[in-house]
Amino acid sequence: MPFSPKITKWVKGRRNGWKQWSALLTAARQLQTGPVIWMHASSLGEFEQGSPLLSAIHQQYPKALLVVTFFSPSGYEVKKHYSGAHCIGYLPFDGPVAAKRFVAMVQPDLVLWVKYDYWYFTLKAIHDQKVPLLLVSAMYRSNQPFFKWYGGMHRKMLGYFTHFFVQTNDAATLLGQVAAQEKITISGDTRFDAVVAVLQHWHGNPLIEQWIADTQWVIVAGSTWPSDEEKMVHYSKTYPQVKWIIAPHNIDESDIADSKALFPNAICYSQLTESMAAADKNVLIIDNVGMLKYLYKYGPICYIGGGFTGDGVHNVLEAAVYSKPVIHGPEYSKYAEAIALEENGGSQIIETALELEALLQKWIAEPETLSRMGHTAGQYVQQYSGATQKVMDYIQANRLLTNETNC
Questions:
Q1: Top-level CATH class of 5-188+386-406?
Q2: Cα–Cα distance between 309 and 316 in angstroms, integer?
Q3: pLDDT digits (tens, 9 = 90+) for 52-76
Q4: CATH architecture of 204-383
Q5: Which residues of 137-159 are buried (b: 16+ CB within 10 A; e: fewer)?
């Protein structure tokens, strides 16, 4: 583990961090003269959750200086050149001195914390400076320390937040046991707004469109783990006329090599060129980050990975927004949107390779079932979009960004 590439990036990314932050902020303040809004996201998924809010703030306050911090390299490495923010970097190590120093350096007028990633000294430093601190798209479960006898410090961290925007009624009820009810708003999940924005700004991929041009059935499998891919192997070999677009969750060289070994009739996206249509291959492995959310549109059937891991299924909304029926594994109890999508009839749970094969054959033979489930999935996403506007309404109603002459 000490030699993990992710940990190496995590450590290296924080070297000379103070000098880098000073230079970033100094340069940005020359151009952005309005209030400073700081958004923290643990990783890429949380960033995608918060990005609709950043976009809305930028539109409403074009002179605002937007700062984004990450904890994980998997977020920072992908979004370090994101054009929708002015300063992007790692959150410094949490400690009483470092936290005070960083808050003093950023001088935020508003802080947005996405979903979770609680750091005691950083949250305390923000609170001590009397900076409004909003928790966005929060979720809570009864087994978390906040609701245990030993969770005193965790409950204290909750006290540092100005307001909570939670995803569900159940989360609001649970949080209400340890936080003032007037500080809680049931807003839904900003991830709905994020995927709707992707749908609205969708763009095609000519290489992939060429590769699937003569294929009737395409299955897009996103954020897959080996435990997901093992369920697909037999079907992909038995029915070569069906094409698969598989985007593994981990794309390190060794992980991609493992995926290719599972699917001998596969080609990587990086090898796909206009002169190599690869028509004889029925599996395309996406060996990059950032493309997946646009690819689900190509699959009449979509599979979301992670449902056979301890962390659970990944973002089902990225596929559902395209009005596509979703398949995933049985580990999804932590994710309200996955539960709701299944209850509404927009997704199907499988536990074995045989179940996956039977389901695919059934859906391919019953296109009307696919159409009905896809419509249900798409309607579910549209129905629950709008969380971003609720947060914006709160910001404006409470005049949290009052320096409007510079906005």
A1: alpha beta
A2: 15
A3: 999 999 999 999 999 999 998 888 9
A4: 3-Layer(aba) Sandwich (3.40)
A5: bbbbeeeeebbeeeeeebeebbe
